[in-house]
Predict the 3D structure of the following.
Amino acid sequence: MTLEDLTDRRLLPAVRRCISFSGRLEDLSQRVAWTMAFLRTRVDTALSQQNRDLLKSMDRRTQLQLRLQEIVEGLSVVAISYYLLSIVGYILRGVEHEIALSHDLAVAIVAPVVFLALWLIKYRIWQGLSDRGWPTQTQASPDRRYQESKKKLPILPFRQNRQPYPTRHDQKLKCARAPMVRGRPRKTMSPGST
C-alpha cells in the first residue's frame, strides 16, 4: 500500500463530504434567496395596495372639496346678486319719479339680468382656470382620468428604415471581406453607414 492509496482511502470520504456539504450550502443559499425575493414581492405588493388605497381616499377627498367649492361659489353668486340688487334698488328709488316703472317692477326686471351676468362671470373665471391647468369637476373625476390613461401613446418610428447597430461579428466579417492594402485591411464605407 502506497502513501497515495492511503491518503486517497483516508481523505476521499472527507473530500466527498465537503463537496456534498458545499452543494447543500449552495442549495440552501439559493432557497433563502428565493424566499427573500418572495417576501420582498409580498412587501412591495402590500405597499402598492396601501398606496392605491391612499390615492383613492385622496381622490375622494379632492372630489368632495371640489363639489363643496362649487356649492360655495354658487351661494356666493346668490349673495352677490342679493347685494347688487339692493344697490340697484337704492339707485332706482332715487330715480323712481323719473321713470315710468314702479320700484318693485324695475327691480324684478333687473334681477334676472344681474343674476345671469354674475353666473356668466363665474363661468368665464372657471374657463380661464381650466385653460391654465386648474382642474374643474369634470377634469378631476377619476373616471375621466382612467379613460385618459387608457389612451395609447403614439409609437414613434425609432430607427425606422435603418440598419441595426453593427455587432463585433459584423465588423470582423467586414474586415475579412475588405481588400488588403500593404498587408492591412483597407477601411471602406459600407452602404448603410453614415
